# Entry
Amino acid sequence: MTSTARPRRSVLYMPGSNARALEKGRGLPADSLILDLEDAVAPDAKELAREQIAAAVAAGGYGAREIVVRVNDLKTPWGKEDVKEIAACGADAILLPKVESAAMVQELEALMVASGAPEHMAIMCMMETPLGMLRADEVAGSSKRLSCLVMGTSDLVKDLQAAHTPDRLPVLTSLGLCILAARAHGLAIVDGVHLDLQDDTGFAASCVQGRELGFDGKTLIHPKTIAAANEAFAPSAEDIAWSRKIIAAHSEAAAEGKGVVVVDGKLIENLHVESAQRLVSMAGKIEELAAANAE
Ligand SMILES: CC(C)(COP(=O)(O)OP(=O)(O)OC[C@H]1O[C@@H](n2cnc3c(N)ncnc32)[C@H](O)[C@@H]1OP(=O)(O)O)[C@@H](O)C(=O)NCCC(=O)NCCSC(=O)C[C@H](O)C(=O)O
Ligand SMILES: [Mg+2]
# Structure
């Protein structure tokens, strides 16, 4: 497994065919960028998009943002060429769409290796079909290169013949299955997109729901939503202060040979300390990322 514990609060899609967006990505405060060759790119623009993405990533300038390239399904006329071109361009990860089996991930990995992908290049999987949901555990355990699952709720709603509702009840089972699979295999997982760019309230509610469900962050389609996602998925100042307080209190109790301690009326055990340590560590990584991108 590659390192999964990095900030992925805001994960912005940008069409690889849109040169302006690729340029703009160098200055946006998103934690990760998905440079897209799949659904955001029309068939007759696929080759241009591939060239533009490879050139933009090779040219650099994206700071410490995670650079992910979404390739086309390997069964399409473009998928295999996408991987050959992208594998050694300097991107951090390749994102495979509509993943439904371990075999699909392993086919990608073999192609990446044959195309000169460095060992640290990760694989991410789009989880967006009914079969993918039913095989989430198999997919999540399919490769040591796998770092993150990415929910594709638009394709999922279409294939389920369901509806986009504010409470997202029609997709909750699917979200839960993928979160279970990701965490069981030590992977990161980010939530699907909110399609209505004028619905700030609905977007904020879906961020809160995503965070409460356990997602690390949210995929986005427009830069104007980055700040809200960054805030929603970052530990609050209050959470950080509380975490530091219980880490210190538990450490003092441990020095006296005690396994538990009560802080402000709440029982604190080792499991709470582990969560607190993860939260404080993530807060530090968010600060480091911001500092690195400001350089
Ligand atoms: C939705 C958009 C087509 C809107 O674009 P536009 O009309 O250009 O928006 P604005 O005029 O408001 O843009 C303002 C400036 O921001 C830049 N911009 C806009 N979007 C992006 C972006 N995604 N990345 C980078 N920069 C962006 C514009 O260039 C303007 O800049 P400036 O020139 O300085 O004024 C557009 O937002 C867009 O294309 N979004 C991405 C759509 C996309 O990628 N869709 C596919 C992914 S979603 C998906 O497939 C999920 C999954 O598979 C599933 O099934 O659920
Ligand atoms: Mg999709």
Summary: The chain has two domains: 10-233, 237-294. The pocket of magnesium ion (ligand 2) is lined by residues 39, 97, 128, 152, 154-155 (CB under 6 Å). DSSP finds twelve helices and ten strands in the chain. The first strand starts at residue 10 and ends at 15.
